[in-house]
Write a structure and sequence with these properties.
six-stranded mixed β-sheet; 40% helix; UDP-N-acetylmuramoyl-L-alanine:D-glutamate ligase; 16 strands; Protein-Tyrosine Phosphatase, Chain A; alpha/beta; 15 helices
């Protein structure tokens, strides 16, 4: 039987299902966001790291701050699970979280805002003190159909923002600047390659985070917090002390003579940035072995693109499961493999993710890099319509134990 939702356009569902539910959530919780100063962060990649950096800086200053990211929500010392595979919670839990923040006396909230959240009215009624965009690259085209649609939805964040923080180096910049200049009081730019309000030369800083893409995340956080009047010294201290986010270039070390890294990279751009960073770190003899897959029932067009990136930038790719859902995992892997073949990259399909990680760890030699991408912080994997417990961190430790590193 054809699923009913496939017969109804998404716009109709948004107007007649999501909008009424969001309105009810707002009314029931009595518009809690009006008592909070909210910083919204959107973009394809880097949202969680940027949010966490902004949160760290706000705490450094001494503000009572809270955050909602794809990893968890945090109010004071309390960490709250926001659900499986969730970045922006649905309106009811989100408004409930905001109400709790008001009750706890929170001043600032840093909120991760996805394109789905903007399109489906999950952030209805929320005005943003600052709106931040990291980048807009290839992702979610199963939902948005075209890059142009995707970008237009991202722009909705700034319809309710006082200040816009934009990436001057991203191809989205010109469109967004033109689209939002009449909606915001001020546009602040950041970048590395183009002239911008915040660059590493204009605002020098130190960070523990690797890679150029994290330089962008830091600059986005710097621009956002500077717009709030926070001093440069406080911002630099917050950036320098930030330890990173679970599942983002997270190193697992049990004494092995090669590096094992876990990263959430599940988009073409994110995968490319991770592999480029590792290529800059490795020596001439060391190799990069990447383990990754692609989610089922999601953007199909990105699969061969990611395969091509892995084939070009890694020495060996192990293609495996990543939330196949109701799709055949081998079909997904074969679609990824087509991209590897295009650039004559070396690869092996190992559909079982634990076995794939085991294989990659066995393959690694001294000074090599094994990077496991796609799951990051997530604690489940979806097969069919069921979620099963899963942790890349635990899977890596099991694989390393089999090689007797301890």
């Amino acid at each position: 039987m054809i699923h009913v939702r496939k017969l109804v356009p998404q716009g109709v569902i948004n107007l007649f299902v999501h909008l009424p539910l969001a309105s009810l959530a707002l009314l029931f919780h009595q518009f809690p966001s009006r008592k909070l100063r909210i910083i919204g962060v959107t973009g394809t990649d880097g949202k969680t790291t940027t949010i966490s950096l902004i949160y760290q800086i706000l705490k450094e200053v001494g503000y009572s701050a809270a955050m909602v990211s794809s990893v968890f929500a945090k109010i004071g010392d309390e960490e709250i699970d926001t659900g499986l595979h969730v970045t922006s919670p649905d309106p009811w839990p989100l408004q409930n979280l905001l109400k709790k923040m008001v009750e706890k006396g929170v001043d600032y909230v840093v909120l991760e805002v996805t394109s789905h959240a903007l399109d489906q009215f999950r952030v209805l009624g929320i005005s943003f003190e600052v709106g931040v965009l990291t980048n807009v690259t290839h992702e979610h085209l199963d939902y948005h159909k075209t890059y142009e649609n995707y970008l237009a939805v991202k722009a909705k964040l700034f319809d309710k923002a006082k200040i816009a923080v934009l990436n001057k180096d991203d191809e989205s910049y010109k469109y967004l600047e033109s689209r939002i200049k009449n909606h915001v009081y001020r546009i602040i730019s950041y970048g590395i390659r183009n002239e911008a309000n915040f660059t590493p030369q204009i605002f020098p800083f130190k960070t523990r985070l690797p890679g150029e893409y994290n330089q962008y995340n830091c600059l986005a956080a710097i621009a956002a917090t500077s717009s709030l009047g926070i001093s440069g010294d406080k911002i630099r201290k917050g950036i320098a002390s930030f330890p990173g986010v679970i599942g983002r270039m997270e190193k697992i070390d049990v004494g092995q003579d090669f590096q094992v890294i876990i990263d959430f990279a599940h988009t073409p751009n994110a995968l490319e940035q991770v592999l480029k960073t590792l290529n800059e770190e490795k020596n001439k003899k060391s190799k990069i072995i990447v383990v990754f897959g692609a989610a089922g029932l999601r953007d199909v067009t990105k699969r061969p693109i990611m395969g091509e990136i892995a084939g070009r930038l890694a020495n060996f790719a192990v293609i495996t499961a990543e939330d196949p859902r109701t799709e055949n995992v081998n079909n997904i892997c074969n679609q990824i493999a087509e991209g590897c073949k295009k650039v004559k990259g070396k690869f092996k399909i190992v559909a079982d993710r634990q076995e794939a990680i085991n294989f990659a760890v066995r393959l690694a030699k001294k000074d090599d890099f094994v990077v496991v991408c796609g799951k990051g912080h997530e604690l489940s994997m979806c097969f069919g319509t069921r979620e099963y417990p899963w942790s890349d961190q635990e899977a890596v430790k099991k694989a390393l134990k089999k090689r007797s590193f301890s």
